Amino acid sequence: MFAVVRTGGKQYRVAAGDKIVVEKLAGEAGERITLGDVLLAGDGGELKATDGLTVAAEIVAQAKGEKVIIFKKRRRHNYRRKNGHRQQHTILKILSIGGEEAKPAKKRAAKAAPAEDTAPAA
């Protein structure tokens, strides 16, 4: 199941188990939050009703983005200004959409090759 949620003025397509980077949200790492502004939800090719639907997420970390350098210059006027900015981000792990939990990834069991006895027959 997937959903399209709006947070921080942007829209994100999420599914259970996804990690997304959004604009800064209040909270510490490890806290659980709910995103209530669900715009669209569906399962495969069919759409589902979004009224009352919420997305549960866990805050993984509060981080800063890459540094953006702002440089202003006016020719022949000895005017130069250099500034920098790092945007605050929150990294979220989507736990469930409308109560539907994330399915754990199936681990492929390595097939053990049958051990061949190489002992000489006596």
TrEMBL record:
SUPFAM superfamilies for the chain: L21p-like (SSF141091)
In the record, biological process GO terms are: translation
Keyword terms: Ribonucleoprotein, Ribosomal protein, RNA-binding, rRNA-binding
Xref: InterPro entries: bL21-like, bL21-like_sf, Ribosomal_bL21
- Name the segments for region: Disordered: 101-122
Q: Does the keyword Protein biosynthesis apply?
A: no
Task: Name the Pfam families for this protein.
Answer: Ribosomal_L21p
Say yes or no: keyword Transport present.
Answer: no
Query: At the top level of its lineage, which domain of life is listed?
Result: Bacteria
| Gene Ontology MF: a single term | structural constituent of ribosome
* Gene Ontology CC annotations of this record: cytoplasm; ribonucleoprotein complex; ribosome
Residue ranges, compositional bias (Low complexity):
111-122
Family membership: Belongs to the bacterial ribosomal protein bL21 family.
PANTHER family hit by this protein: 50S RIBOSOMAL PROTEIN L21, LARGE RIBOSOMAL SUBUNIT PROTEIN BL21M
Assembly mode: Part of the 50S ribosomal subunit. Contacts protein L20.
Physiological role = This protein binds to 23S rRNA in the presence of protein L20.
> What is this protein's name?
Large ribosomal subunit protein bL21
Which source organism does the UniProt entry give? Sphingomonas changnyeongensis
